[in-house]
Design brief:
Number of strands of chain A: 5
Distance between the termini of chain A: 17 Å
Strand content of chain B: 5-15%
CATH architecture of the largest domain in chain A: 3-Layer(aba) Sandwich
Order of helices and strands of chain A: HHHHEHEHEHEHEH
Radius of gyration of chain A: 18 Å
Largest sheet of chain B: 6 strands, parallel
Number of helices of chain A: 9
Strand content of chain A: 5-15%
Order of helices and strands of chain B: HHHHHHEEEHHHHEHHHEHEHEHEHHEH
Oligomer: heterodimer
Shape of chain B: globular
Number of helices of chain B: 19
CATH class of the largest domain in chain B: Alpha Beta
Structural class of chain A: alpha/beta
Helix content of chain B: 40-55%
Largest sheet of chain A: 5 strands, parallel
């Protein structure tokens, strides 16, 4: 679909993190009865471009947090207008959380924001998530991928336990969901130790991996 | 206690540093044996040589320790936060068994009773929110709101006492009812100003504060002799004299939180910068006071939210570096040796931190995930550096792999001095074999 000049400017303003201008534009578009779903689509396009800038090393965590904040504000304004939720059809579903015993959430939040930028549907279980909760949620949501985050070395044991429990539960159903571990202290040795399928140290590598594993995600 | 010489103001930076290092390296203490005294002198001299960018007799091995000593002793971290007998056994044995080139201090384990009495909200610690055998962890939050900047900038101590501390310590919540100390002026107003101190909840809060002080004194009365026994008995010098933080981290870690401070960079950059500038003299004074009391000029500065990935170099130069640099220059002016611990990656920042305004031979930089050859290229001849042995290798690798990693690091960057062997992140989890491989290989292979 061709975007009007006003839409292009809106997307650019979001990309440039011009919060006041973006929100003023949302108000104006809602006033003139623009299709709210189109506003959301434009906002998602802006977020995708934010993700691209992050991938290219032009944006960093600070910009991602600001972009996510603007996106949240847009959704707060638009969502009451649209009763229906944004369709997630076609995008991959990712179950994400920081493992038990670890309450670090920065890395997990970056990958959560970035995954949303790239059109994935993320179910973020938060921090200090017990292995049993991952299993219950995995059975309920049937995600395409499971991401376990952890910063401290003590999280390695929790990752191993969580993965063992997920695999044990899956053995009864015949499913096998790819499990990715993420954290700045990880490497191949840890991946083998905890019996994960993949490991990533950076959020962008994580999202690129998600895209590789779920080509429909973008 | 380091006694400031009369001619202090006429001394050069080098002379001030040398005077403080001299006092640190020859402490007024009775060593248990002549060997211990000799060992202390030898180890202190190696570190002094490294700081001053000279070639020591060998590479000093000074790893960063987390809660691994507890694992090694087979006790939980929770136990040694309360049981000081066990704390002592754990650390005396750990120091004796591994003999690194600096004291492994038990002080960082912290007093569990104090945290409980204060009802600490912004951290979880073993048995109180984190498993009994792991480290403490910070609970990210906005303990200072986006609207609190003016209050902090106007009077940081007042803001801490009446707003911040009541938010992070449940037991001190009633302190929010107190008036500022600066209310207390003319005699008739003294009475009026003290009214809030009589309110029952405020009195209870002060009682909790006094009780926390009492149990903290019991704790430090135990910690002092434990560390003292390792210094005097084994000749291991203490390498932490004071502690401070980059103003950006003071705000970004436990006041505004990561999300909060990053939004402030866009929404209220001027206030953020003004607040950080306000914190510079406070960050300097805190370190100098403690380092002077301990007669130990090394000032530990963990660096957090300025690592690669958090912000662009342009933002680092605007928000992070200017006030950190001001703190470093203030410390160096006072004869201190800032000992910086750059957590995460710092590859993008090397050109910025090697600021020509910071004199050579006055700082020590430790790196985690940074390219050490690049570090050597940029910092060599300007500052001492260390770090990089990976936590994952120490946890999941073999002793041979650890030993190979240490040898490669020494081959790559030990050069003609100015280098300390250390791991990248604080060590929480490992095996005795791997820790021995790191320390013993470093000592043997690191001979110049």
């Amino acid at each position: 679909m061709n975007k009007t000049e006003a839409q292009q400017i809106f997307i650019q303003q979001l990309l440039d993190l011009e919060e006041d201008k973006v929100l003023a534009a949302v108000y104006a578009r809602l006033e003139q009865n623009d299709d709210p779903l189109e506003i959301i689509e434009d906002a998602q396009e802006g977020m995708r471009r934010v993700g691209d800038r992050y991938e290219q090393g032009e944006y960093f965590l600070a910009a991602l947090i600001m972009a996510a904040e603007i996106f949240r504000e847009i959704m707060d304004l638009v969502q009451p207008v649209v009763e229906t939720q944004i369709s997630s059809a076609g995008s991959g579903v990712i179950l994400l959380g920081t493992v038990q015993g670890d309450i670090h959430d920065i890395g997990k939040n970056i990958i959560s924001i970035l995954s949303t930028c790239y059109g994935f549907m993320v179910h973020d279980l938060g921090v200090d998530v017990p292995p049993e909760d991952f299993v219950t949620q995995a059975e309920e949501l049937r995600p395409d991928l499971i991401g376990l985050s952890g910063l401290i070395t003590a999280s390695f044991e929790a990752m191993a336990q969580t993965i063992a429990l997920i695999r044990q539960a899956e053995a009864q159903t015949g499913r096998r969901t790819p499990i990715i571990i993420g954290g700045s202290q990880l490497d191949e040795q840890v991946c083998e130790y905890v019996r994960a399928d993949y490991w990533v140290r950076s959020a962008i590598d994580g999202v690129l991996l998600f895209q590789r594993l779920l080509p429909a995600g973008r | 206690m380091f006694v400031i010489p009369k001619n202090w103001n006429k001394m050069s930076l080098k002379e001030k540093q040398a005077a403080r290092l001299q006092a640190w390296s020859s402490p007024e203490m009775a060593f248990a044996t002549p060997e211990a005294e000799k060992g202390h002198k030898q180890r202190a001299q190696m570190l002094i040589d490294v700081i001053q960018l000279k070639k020591p007799e060998r590479v000093p091995v000074i790893p960063w320790w987390g809660v691994y000593p507890a694992h090694y002793a087979g006790v939980t971290v929770q136990e040694i936060m309360y049981d000081y007998e066990k704390l002592g056994e754990t650390f005396r044995k750990f120091n004796a068994d591994f003999l690194p080139d600096a004291l492994v201090s038990c002080a960082l384990i912290g007093p569990g009773k104090t945290f409980e009495i204060l009802d600490v909200k912004n951290y979880r610690w073993p048995g109180h929110g984190t498993p009994v055998d792991t480290s403490y962890q910070c609970v990210e939050g906005e303990y200072m709101t986006a609207d609190d900047y003016d209050a902090l900038i106007t009077d940081p101590s007042n803001f801490f006492m009446r707003t911040y501390l009541p938010r992070i310590f449940g037991a001190l919540e009633p302190w929010g009812m107190l008036g500022p100390w600066t209310d207390i002026l003319e005699l008739p107003f003294v009475g009026l100003s003290l009214i809030p101190a009589g309110i029952p909840p405020v009195q209870q809060a002060f009682q909790a504060f006094l009780q926390a002080g009492q149990v903290t004194l019991e704790w430090i009365s135990a910690v002092g002799p434990i560390d003292g026994a390792s210094i005097a008995g084994l000749g291991l010098p203490d390498t932490v004299g004071g502690f401070t933080k980059a103003p950006f981290d003071i705000l970004g870690d436990t006041l505004r939180g990561t999300r909060g401070i990053m939004l402030d960079m866009y929404r209220q950059p001027d206030k953020l910068i003004a607040a950080m500038e306000r914190l510079v003299p406070i960050a300097i004074e805190m370190a100098v006071r403690n380092a002077t009391a301990k007669s130990n000029p090394m000032v530990f500065i963990p660096l957090h939210k300025g690592a690669d990935g958090f912000m662009s170099n342009k933002d680092y130069k605007k928000f992070y570096w200017p006030t950190l640099k001001a703190v470093l220059l203030g410390l160096i002016e006072a004869g201190m040796v800032p000992y910086l611990f750059a957590e995460g990656g710092y590859n993008q920042r090397l050109d910025i931190i090697t600021d020509p305004d910071i004199p050579a031979g006055h700082t020590v930089w430790s790196f985690d995930h940074s390219d050490m050859k690049e570090v050597k290229k940029k910092l060599g001849g300007w500052a001492a550096f260390c770090g990089n042995v990976p936590a994952s290798l120490l946890k999941a690798g073999t002793p041979q792999a650890v030993s190979d990693c240490v040898k490669k690091l020494i081959d790559d960057v030990a050069g003609d001095g100015g280098y300390i062997l250390a791991n990248g992140a604080v060590l929480d989890d490992s095996t005795p074999e791997n820790v021995h491989a790191m320390i013993d290989t470093g000592k043997e292979y690191g001979k110049y």
